[in-house]
């Protein structure tokens, strides 16, 4: 296991855009948060590039990532936004070099695509807010959680909401998962989601109800859900707003309850982990304990190496 | 290989709803078409059931399918509509029995989910209009193609449009594929898409542009596209209508051209195969020849066993 170095005041944090584009005003509030912790924020060369749904072409986005991971001055890398685009980068990335760098790497949503191969190569990564996420004010504990994880501290504040018991019991396992559609997109690739014996987290945004069903069903048909030691269902933001007339719909809660009906491992739903309202920062690739009776998750191992 | 029996006047054709629901008026025009060929149309017990996006619960939809495949009086099975739901049926289906029945089975879109395992078990199946598709008038050659394939005749009329050359050359291979999101959903399951040495067809409907990109990218990252002997890109219906501001967008044509830029096998795009306007009926699981210079597909082997 490769633990990233905890950030200290004065450390350089590089902002990169490996997926979809955004405008400079969308990073401002998040940059102020990082600077308030004493970090020096720098930017990848193409961080505000835009071509359709991509923040610059694949080579440009990949070059920014590789530069951030190989520049010895850069201590942490935070993504500006998700959207879509990380899966296109694999031909241009050296994942072994990225993982071996031991740098702190944070983001979520489309970044799930990079967490999986980096975790598989041993690097602990951070499922945490991105700059665009921080452009609007969140619950205080969301920022508290984010500030804590960057320092290598426990990112699950007492004040954060708990999940609801779906299947009781408790389970220890390495934390994996993230955004469902990207977890699905990883299947059959060289670095597929592997949930066996792990705690599998799932959240997504703006999916049609039947697609949420389809993603759970694929995970069932592939044996992924059944192989997990425990399951953590976060937000399915926007799904209930898409109860479309064309194909018919179920609310996401009914979908989750239906698709997980056969699951016997400890499972919680509505955990404060997702795209919009609630956003705990969580380390991926470290051992955690799911207490599904209490609806809580506890990180068991260190998240970061001590600063030097 | 198990060839279905060609239909003859007087044969019973069973209509089933293994996926999403529909109302009786949506099948009327298609039933008239089937009856005009002299077929006797019967209905699965739950064909008009509805629960959200499903035409009845999984056990009901699966029971209708199994009954159709095992009833010796039923000669052909045509699905009423796709939508979503077939992937949920696997726990309740006996795919070996279905394939060994040698019955004609037709549908597309969500039915891709059933074509793959039936083809893998040797049964030739029909990628063809469903009852809901026939509820509105199509180009004359669409109905001509459908009527032909049910009789085991060549379903590619001279009057059908051709595809456009993307990579020239020609290739022979077994025809596979269908609706992209369902092809993706098959990956890592017991019956995944296997395009190696085959002619891989792809079409989809109402997908966000970046999701079309993501599906092609997964197929690239998984090596699926590169393994095919030839590639046939049909319609991506509705994708260009979703050039959303939130994430940014590319027209689907640009997406296809970008994602297939590294493909060196014979490939055509805009083949008249898809969800809305153009809908050739095609046999899946039989050998065909793609002439990518001419933009044509030719079925090389018999589609059906001779009627007895």
Overview of the structural elements:
2 copies of one chain form a homodimer. Chain A contains 9 helices and 13 strands. By secondary structure, chain A is α/β, with parallel strands linked by helices. Chain A folds into 2 domains: 12-137, Rossmann fold (3-Layer(aba) Sandwich), CATH 3.40.50; 164-299, Glucose Oxidase, domain 1, CATH 3.50.30.60. In chain A, α7 runs parallel beside α9. The longest helix of chain A is centred in the first third of the chain and has 13 residues, at 58-70. The two termini of chain A are 18 Å apart. The A-B interface holds A 20-21, 50-54, 83-85, 87-88, 90, 181, 184-190, 192, 209-211, 213-215, 217-218, 221-222, 224, 247-250, 254 and B 20-21, 50-54, 83-85, 87-88, 90, 181, 184-190, 192, 209-211, 213-215, 217-218, 221-222, 224, 247-250, 254.
Q: pLDDT average of chain A, as an integer?
A: 94
- Beta percentage of chain A is 15-25%
- The side-by-side strand order for the widest beta sheet of chain A comes to 6-10-9-8-7-12-13
CATH topology of the largest domain in chain A: the name is Glucose Oxidase, domain 1
- Return Rg of chain A in Å: 18 Å
Low-confidence stretches of chain A: none
Helical region count of chain A? 9
Helix content of chain A: 25-40%
Write down the secondary-structure element order of chain A: EHEHEHEHEHEEHEHHEHEEEE
Distance between the termini of chain A: 18 Å
Largest sheet of chain A: 7 strands, mixed
CATH superfamily descriptor of the largest domain in chain A: LD-carboxypeptidase A C-terminal domain-like
Shape category of chain A: globular
């Amino acid at each position: 296991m490769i633990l990233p170095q905890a950030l200290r005041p004065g450390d350089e944090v590089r902002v990169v855009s490996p997926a979809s584009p955004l405008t400079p005003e969308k990073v401002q509030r998040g940059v102020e948060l990082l600077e308030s912790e004493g970090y020096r924020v720098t930017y990848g060369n193409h961080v505000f590039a835009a071509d359709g749904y991509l923040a610059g072409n694949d080579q440009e986005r990949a070059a920014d990532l590789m530069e951030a991971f190989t520049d010895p001055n850069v201590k942490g890398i935070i993504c500006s936004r998700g959207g879509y685009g990380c899966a296109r980068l694999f031909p241009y990335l050296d994942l072994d070099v990225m993982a071996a760098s031991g740098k702190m790497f944070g983001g979520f949503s489309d970044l799930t695509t990079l967490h999986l191969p980096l975790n598989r190569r041993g690097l602990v990564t951070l499922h945490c807010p991105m700059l665009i996420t921080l452009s609007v004010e969140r619950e205080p504990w969301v920022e508290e959680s984010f500030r804590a994880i960057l320092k290598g501290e426990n990112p699950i504040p007492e004040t954060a909401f708990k999940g609801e018991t779906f299947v009781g019991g408790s389970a220890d396992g390495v934390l994996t998962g993230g955004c469902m559609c990207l977890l699905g997109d990883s299947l059959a690739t060289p670095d597929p989601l592997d949930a066996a014996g792990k705690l599998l987290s799932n959240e997504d945004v703006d999916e049609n109800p039947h697609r949420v069903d389809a993603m759970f069903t694929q995970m069932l048909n592939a044996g992924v859900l059944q192989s997990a030691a425990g399951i953590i269902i976060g937000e399915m933001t926007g799904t209930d707003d898409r109860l479309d007339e064309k194909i018919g719909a179920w609310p996401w809660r009914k979908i989750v309850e239906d698709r997980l009906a056969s699951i016997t491992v400890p499972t919680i739903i509505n955990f404060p982990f997702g795209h919009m309202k609630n956003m705990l920062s969580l380390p991926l690739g470290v051992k955690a304990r799911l207490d599904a009776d209490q609806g809580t998750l506890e990180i068991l191992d260190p998240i970061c190496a001590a600063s030097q």
